[in-house]
Amino acid sequence: MQDEIQRAVAEELGIEGLSSAEQQELIAQMTGIMLKAATLALLEKLREDKRDEFVIIAESKDEEALRTFLEKELPGSEEIVRAAVSEEIRRFKEYQSGIPAA
């Protein structure tokens, strides 16, 4: 199943021509970039007095606590994350194709 996921992500990113090892490395790098972009997008939308609490929960790596916090403090957070990830994929594709960002 992991190979299938890697192939799907590689296809989405347009990197299917790279070796499996290169794909894995690039996907790992992209995942880190997308995580940072999503975190920044969420922080921007959170009320200022809730940002420290968000950081503490996120750093604890307690997925359920983070999900509960976001559901309470930032309804619609899943869409914010999706938009941030989509934007990073768009930027990557533009970079790959040499088309300047609009």
What's the gist of this structure?
This protein is mainly alpha-helical and 102 residues long. It has five helices and no strands.
Describe this structure in words.
This protein is an all-alpha fold and 102 residues long. Helices cover 78% and strands 0% of the residues. It has helices at 2-13, 20-45, 51-60, 63-73, 77-97. The longest helix has 26 residues, at 20-45. The N and C termini lie far apart (36 Å). The model has no long low-confidence stretch (mean pLDDT 87).
Strand content: under 5%
Oligomer: single chain
Could you state the order of secondary-structure elements as H and E?
A: HHHHH
Helix content, binned percent: over 70%
Described by the principal axes of the CA atoms, the overall outline is elongated
The major beta sheet can be summarized as: none
Our count of helices gives: 5
Structural class based on helices, strands and sheet pairing: mainly alpha
Distance between the ends: 36 Å
Radius of gyration: 16 Å
Give the total of beta strands.
Answer: 0
Summarize model confidence as the mean pLDDT: 87
Ranges with pLDDT <50 over ≥5 residues? none
